[in-house]
TrEMBL record:
Protein name: Conserved oligomeric Golgi complex subunit 4
Keyword Protein transport: yes
COG4 transport protein middle alpha-helical bundle domain span: 177-323
GO biological process, one term: protein transport
Organism: Armillaria ostoyae (Armillaria root rot fungus)
Location(s), subcellular: Golgi apparatus membrane
Top-level taxon of the source organism: Eukaryota
Length: 325
């Protein structure tokens, strides 16, 4: 038998028979009663729904009242968006012009700096030449160092090559500077050699410290090394005789003591004007001279004492005689 179902709000389900299968009056009346109960329940549900309609309508009414305000806000937002876009475009144009202005200002500053450097270059070269002519070597070194401190692209640039040369000196600044440096190097070497030969410590120190100021550090150290080497050359006293038993021992002792004393006294001077570690090249040259002197002393000792002949005789004495067969 087919059955119909009816669900309630409380979750219960009624099962009623198919009306087409009802054949007697009690079953028909029972089914009719069930349908009437269901109808009453549905009517009550509709009544409850209609009673809850007022809050929904009130909410819908409030929403409809807000619609004009939302439309106004939408229009304001569109206007604001247009203004922001316009402002952004204006800001971009202004920013581009500001960046262009900054670039122009940077170029102007660079041009001003370059002009100032070229003016300093021309002034320093003129003062350098004047100092050389007046034999003021300290001032010449200072002005030369000022020129060398300028960027190379300034010294060798086309602008400097155009404005720096004068009627007295037509050479480009680079050539003028190099010629002055070479002239100063020659003067410093000559005066240093003269001062060191005459053992003029003040003049020796004066010219020694000028070499690195104009970029001739290696040449200054070489000149100083020659000066140091000359101090340790072994020269036998007039009264000394190579035949003396203590001559060579005394000479070697004096040599090593002299080297130790010179290194101790002159290292602070070299490092003061040339920097830490610069004494190494001087010491290397000093050791070369030491080796040469020691070799000469050993050869003199061997010759004076006839050491080769004595060694040969000693070898013969130690050689066993040959036995005759």
């Amino acid at each position: 038998m087919s059955l119909d179902t009816n669900s309630h709000h409380d979750g219960t389900v009624d099962v009623r028979p198919d009306p087409r299968l009802l054949t007697n009056l009690p079953d028909i009346l029972s089914a009719l009663s069930s349908i009437q109960s269901e109808e009453a329940e549905l009517s009550n549900s509709l009544t409850d729904l209609l009673s809850d309609r007022a809050p929904i309508l009130s909410s819908l009414s409030r929403l409809r009242s807000v619609v004009p305000q939302l439309n106004d806000l939408n229009e304001d937002a569109l206007l604001l968006s247009e203004k922001v876009v316009t402002t952004a475009r204006t800001a971009e144009r202004v920013g581009g012009r500001v960046r262009s202005l900054d670039e122009e200002m940077r170029r102007i500053r660079e041009a001003g700096d370059r002009v100032g450097q070229v003016i300093e270059l021309k002034s320093s070269l003129a003062e350098l030449q004047a100092s050389i002519e007046s034999h003021d070597w300290e001032s010449a070194s200072r002005h030369c160092a000022r020129v060398m401190a300028l960027p190379l692209d300034v010294i060798s640039g086309p602008f400097a090559e155009h404005v720096v040369p004068t009627s007295d000196n037509h050479l480009p600044p680079v050539q003028t500077l190099q010629a002055a440096r070479e002239q100063l190097l020659s003067v410093f070497q000559e005066n240093f050699e003269r001062a060191s030969s005459s053992r003029d410590s003040a003049a020796t120190s004066r010219f020694f410290k000028l070499f690195p100021a104009i970029g001739w550090e290696r040449e200054g150290l070489q000149a100083y090394a020659l000066f140091i080497v000359d101090l340790v050359r072994v020269r036998a006293p007039a009264s000394a005789k190579t035949s003396s038993p203590m001559y060579y021992t005394t000479a070697l002792t004096a040599l090593f003591e002299s080297i130790a004393m010179i290194v101790d006294q002159h290292q602070p001077v070299v490092e003061k004007y040339y920097g830490t570690g610069k004494m190494i090249s001087v010491v290397e040259r000093l050791l070369e001279e030491c080796d040469r002197v020691v070799k000469g002393l050993i050869e003199g000792w061997e010759e004076e004492r006839s050491m080769k002949r004595k060694a040969s005789l000693q070898a013969l004495l130690l050689t066993p005689p040959l036995k005759c067969l």
